[in-house]
Protein 1
Amino acid sequence: QVQPVESGGGLVQAGGSLRLSCAASGRTISTYAMGWFRQAQGKEREFVAAISGSGGSAYYADYADSVKGRFAISRDNAMNTVYLQMNSLKPEDTALYYCVARSGSMYYTRERHWYDYWGQGTQVTVSS
């Protein structure tokens, strides 16, 4: 069992930055693909970013078009933690952000059903 626990959400003005953290307990996540999804009120949960697990010397990342160039996902396997750096935040980024883990595979995906562990979420609110 892996339990992702998110932190770092909060209220920020448009144009500001936040860094979300996802600390995973239970198992080492170094080989797992990890990601972030978000859900705004009244909308479906959507993919934000994902990063591959360790399979060599490089990690690969994928981003939703809406956040590309503004958000950056990274991981610190020694800390069993994944991060989401969010810059140039917009009011439309307001949502509950979930950290996800895909056990048994280092390959990321945008499809949420492939992620078998989900955190409880951390709220990000961007004011205009």
Protein 2
Amino acid sequence: QVQLVESGGGLVQAGDSLRLSCATSGRTFSSAAMGWFRQGPGKEREFVAGVSWSGGNKDYADSAKGRFTLSRDSAKYTLTLQMNSLKPEDTAVYYCAARLTYLHINYVYTADHEYGYWGQGTRVTVSS
């Protein structure tokens, strides 16, 4: 069974930083493509950042480029999203997702329907 546990959300002011973490098992971490998505108030869930099955490729949504950094801690089986220069429009529930199968080991999946496993989400609120 795949378990994804997010943490690190909170209430911050515009310009602040937050670090979100997604903890999973070693088996999942070493054999999954993973990503972060978010769903803002009244909005559809959208891709934020992702890493390929191989871990070699990463991709970011345009809204995240230059501000967010995705990293994998192989020792802790944790996927981390460092978010800097936060804006009120970053307010959302952030979800970690995993996909155990792949077509290409270096492909980064950016659509939510491509992922089969989801965490419970962690809420990020950015005040202006």
